[in-house]
Amino acid sequence: MCGIFGIYNHKDAANITYLGLYALQHRGQESAGIACFDENTVHLHKQMGLVSDVFTADVLKTLQGTNAIGHVRYSTAGSSDLKNSQPIVVEYLKGHLALAHNGNLTNARIIRDDLRDSGSIFQTTTDTEVIVHLIARSKERNTADRLTGALNTIEGSYSLVLLTPNELIAARDPYGIRPLCLGRLKDSHIISSESCAFDLIEAEFLREIEPGEILVINEKGTHSLFPFKKVPRKHCIFEYIYFARPDSFMFGRTVYTIRKAFGRGLAKGDTVEADMVIPIPDSGIGAAIGYSQASGIPFELGLIRNHYVGRTFIEPEPSIRHFGVKLKHNAIHDLVKGKKLVVIDDSIVRATTSRKIISMLRYYGAREIHFRVSSPPTKYPCFYGIDTPSRKQLIASSHTVEDIKTYMQCDSLRYLTVEEMKDALDGGDYTFCDACFTGDYFIPFPRAMDMEQMELFSRQ
Ligand code: 5GP
Ligand code: SF4
Ligand code: MG
């Protein structure tokens, strides 16, 4: 759960990156950072906090240079503190390099232990640093080949940007699990996790980086390498369900249209009678619109979200999450009073948010509450880069839908089925990872990871 951005050949590289990170803020709110090169001098600024807090005009002035990369972070491996923030900047035998990574490496611990046994010193507890070490140890002559060697050793999900004084390199894992795309702004090339960042800076969307592609951008232009064995595409379907911004174009479609299709799919198999469909904002809005259009039940904004509270989930402290739920949503009293409601959210994790919202709606006089979820029950943890720590406490992994309904105290509960989810994506091959719903893990992970994904490196 991170956002990455890179720009090559722009006189205001850091300023553009700063704007790009704004557009990617939803992908990580713990820390933000920008690295850039001014000839051979590297500038780096990273800090805990939101993009708007981390960068001031004075800081941006110090970030000189025509090439830059940036990162917003939410930790999936490694603890949440400054030393684990990105980009990582190092100086090694061949000079400086900066790296920013979105994803999760499943064999990072094994490689890390090997590297440490042979003398490597690690500065952070992130799996990203493993890639840096592998690049530094490579005997290959150019950076792209050294990166290829490193990526051939690691397994898991990665979309990354690597910057040297004269090159920007983007890479995406062979399955294409996490998104990454290429854009252009006049003579500059831009890499971003999501296309919504291009819109903000008025850049043109060119294409998505292909699964398994290493794209090198330098003074000669761009060229692509495809050095890995071809494997089936496995795009993270949870990006569509929840994580990506609805205005992004990703995995060949606009996220918003898919969210609506999930909502339509939910409505298709539903016979419930209700006065209105209301989303839990913001994550349930797209699906609720789709549900309303397909069912003919009017859409209303029955719940209002306070936008100045961080995403409840993203706060690592349980006490903060508890407050967050209460602070975040309120109901429009006279709208819901005496009404039969279909309430839609994109997913249920612990069911704590939804339970509180249901109790609030009842308090304001809702007559019936039919809860609908625009994804299948989330039963399995993600090892490929999404919010693993909280997924340990997934309610659906140990409870039936009936149990969950009882816990949430709604009148009925229905999830989108895996089949309905596939139907909603209509047409062509199904090219998605859905392991958190099906348990179909296509990249093996060490057994220990199952138990202690979050403690991955923190044991030192
Ligand atoms: P619950 O009702 O299970 O307590 O919370 C469900 C809510 O959490 C949904 O609104 C959903 O949008 C949100 N959610 C699901 N997965 C994640 C995640 O990985 N990170 C964050 N921040 N929120 C999530
Ligand atoms: Fe995405 Fe779920 Fe696969 Fe993780 S397990 S990559 S969240 S679809
Ligand atoms: Mg939500």
Description of the molecule:
- By secondary structure, the protein is of the alpha+beta class.
- The chain has two domains: 3-231, Glutamine Phosphoribosylpyrophosphate, subunit 1, domain 1 (4-Layer Sandwich); 254-451, Rossmann fold (3-Layer(aba) Sandwich), CATH 3.40.50.2020.
- Helices cover 32% and strands 26% of the residues.
- The chain contains 18 helices and 23 strands.
- A seven-stranded antiparallel β-sheet has the order 3-2-4-1-10-9-11. Strands 5-6-7-8-12-13 form a six-stranded antiparallel β-sheet, covered by helices on one side. Strands 17-20-21-22 form a four-stranded parallel β-sheet, sandwiched between helices.
- A hairpin with a 2-residue loop joins β7 (156-164) and β8.
- α5 (128-137) crosses α6 (143-153), α9 (255-268) crosses α10 and α9 (255-268) crosses α16.
- The radius of gyration is 22 Å and the shape is globular.
- It starts with a strand and ends in an 8-residue tail after the last helix.
- The structure holds guanosine-5'-monophosphate, iron/sulfur cluster and magnesium ion.
Secondary structure layout plus pairing:
Elements: E1 2-8, H1 13-23, E2 31-38, E3 41-48, H2 51-54, H3 57-62, E4 67-73, E5 88-92, E6 95-105, H4 108-117, H5 128-137, H6 143-153, E7 156-164, E8 167-172, E9 181-185, E10 188-192, H7 196-200, E11 204-208, E12 214-218, E13 221-225, E14 235-236, H8 237-243, E15 249-250, E16 253-254, H9 255-268, E17 276-279, H10 285-295, E18 303-305, H11 318-328, E19 329-331, H12 333-336, E20 340-345, H13 352-363, E21 368-373, H14 388-391, H15 401-408, E22 412-415, H16 418-424, E23 432-433, H17 435-438, H18 447-452
Parallel strand pairs: 14-23, 17-20, 20-21, 21-22
Antiparallel strand pairs: 1-4, 1-10, 2-3, 2-4, 5-6, 6-7, 7-8, 8-12, 9-10, 9-11, 12-13, 15-16, 18-19
The site of magnesium ion has 3 residues, from loops.
